[in-house]
Write a structure and sequence with these properties.
Blueprint lengths: L1 E5 L9 E7 L6 E2 L4 E6 L4 E5 L4 E6 L6 E3 L3 E7 L5 H9 L5 H24 L1 H4 L3 H12 L1 H8 L2 H10 L17 H8 L7 H6 L9 H16 L2 E9 L1 H18 L6 H14 L5 E4 L2 E4 L5 E3 L1 E3 L2 E3 L2 E2 L7 H16 L5 H4 L4 E5 L18 E5 L2 E8 L2 E15 L5 H16 L2 H5 L2
Parallel strand pairs: 12-16, 16-17
Antiparallel strand pairs: 1-8, 2-4, 2-7, 3-6, 4-5, 6-8, 9-19, 10-11, 12-15, 13-14, 17-19, 18-19
Helix pairs in contact: 11-12, 11-14
């Protein structure tokens, strides 16, 4: 009996997908619930499992095919109903005779003494350490170490500072010694084309993935449909960094996860969102929808592009639960195992460009949300503290918001509250 492999229901507003890669070939054995084909959608990549244990008998939609929900991908025959290998064996077995097997074994026995004799004859040659001798001889052939020994201080300095490989340079000095003039001449030589140019040519064209197409579409929609504006502030991270340092070991031993910065930022955002509900709202036509739950989206960079999974009910999570969930969801994102549910329902977004070294940016809204907070790298900067100039770890914050629903006063006050709660993290535990 054959079971159909169908495109599953992909989630809200997703009607089609692209067959990314078949994990099995026709005729391969499969186990029930074993992933056999990968599908790529506008939001996530997902694996379709085998409906039953058996053999993959037919692939109807090949790699790269666009398929709709419910479309036939292939079919699996249950064990006992189809087996390509079994059929082949059944065809071959009747032709095999017992005397043929005996003859084959006899042939093998006859050949074995010959092989043994060859080994005896070659024994004298194996006693010579040919391989070892060749390895020893190859070592002095390397000219780099010899040149290194003969380099003048001036040449050695140029080589070190510019990371020059002199093994390929033909020296004009005595006995092939590399001189300063040789290096200067080398610096005047035009560099070769890039490896990508050599490999792929002057230009290369690659079709955008569905995920990248969706990212581009949504970002363009945000620019066209929302009244985007960004406000900035800075936060002194001294107290948070000291708090993390003092409690890191105990926190990790107790909860099995490191205490990061994201839990502080999530908590600070939740407090600010409760005080400024417009930032946690969205526009639906001519209606404002205020969300009284706090699902924090956070951007994760993957090999296939940026994805924004959601931390559900962040206001009801402890610091430890926030860190555990962020770690778990981030790993799923990088492994391409996010589900549609992981990406839906966000009310506010945090983007951490600081992990890549960003000093300042203007993040774009994740529609239909009305606000996004940009975190950046932490740099020691001179600031005035109680009339004195001191060096403190400073992070720039950026809040991009939809001016149609959030006024300037609300946006500035919202960001200021986040700043205050981060600079004095004790406030987060007092809910003030």
């Amino acid at each position: 009996m054959s079971e159909k492999i169908l495109v599953p229901v992909l989630g809200e507003s997703i009607t089609e997908a692209t067959v990314s890669k078949w994990l099995k070939n026709e005729g391969d054995s499969v186990e029930a619930d074993e992933p056999i084909v990968e599908l790529e959608t506008d939001k996530v990549n997902l694996e379709v499992p085998a409906p039953v244990s058996g053999t993959l008998t037919k692939i109807n939609s090949k790699d790269g095919s666009v398929v709709e929900v419910g479309a036939l991908l292939g079919s699996v025959s249950e064990n006992g109903s189809f087996s390509k290998k079994t059929e082949e064996i059944e065809k071959i077995q009747p032709t095999i005779k017992e005397d043929n097997v005996i003859k084959l074994e006899t042939q093998k026995d006859e050949e074995e003494p010959k092989i043994f004799e060859e080994k005896i004859e070659a024994q004298g040659e194996e006693e010579k350490p040919l391989v070892l001798t060749e390895e020893i001889k190859e070592e002095p052939k390397k000219t780099k170490s010899k040149n290194d020994q003969n380099l003048s201080p001036a040449v050695r300095k140029i080589v070190t500072e510019n990371k020059i490989d002199i093994s390929s340079i033909k020296g004009t000095g005595k006995d092939g010694r590399v001189l300063k003039g040789d290096l200067i001449n080398l610096m005047g030589v035009n560099p070769p084309p890039s490896e990508r140019k050599i490999k792929y040519g002057h230009e290369e064209k690659i079709k955008m993935t569905r995920l990248r197409q969706t990212i581009a579409k949504r970002l363009k929609q945000a620019q066209e449909n929302a009244a985007l504006l960004t406000t900035f502030n800075e936060v002194d991270m001294t107290n948070i960094m000291e708090m993390r340092k003092d409690n890191q070991v105990d926190f990790q031993n107790r909860y099995g996860v490191k205490l990061g910065f994201m839990s502080f930022f999530v908590k600070a955002c939740v407090v600010a969102l409760k005080n400024f509900p417009a930032v946690n709202a969205e526009i639906d036509g001519d209606t404002i929808v205020y969300k009284n739950y706090y699902n924090i989206s956070f951007a994760v960079g993957t090999d296939k592009g940026l994805v924004v999974p959601v931390l559900k009910n962040a206001d009801e999570l402890s610091f430890a639960d926030i860190e555990k969930n962020i770690k778990q969801i981030s790993e799923k994102a990088r492994e391409g195992k996010l589900t549609i549910e992981d990406l839906q329902g966000g009310t506010f977004t945090i983007s951490n460009g600081g992990v890549y070294g960003s000093m300042l940016s203007t993040p774009i809204l994740n529609l239909p949300q009305s606000g996004v907070l940009g975190m950046h790298n932490i740099i020691d900067r001179p600031i005035v503290v109680e009339g004195e100039i001191k060096i403190r770890p400073i992070m720039y914050l950026a809040l991009s918001y939809d001016h149609r629903i959030i006024d300037g006063k609300e946006s500035v006050s919202f960001l200021k509250m986040i700043k205050e709660n981060l600079e004095d993290p004790r406030r987060l535990f007092l809910d003030i």
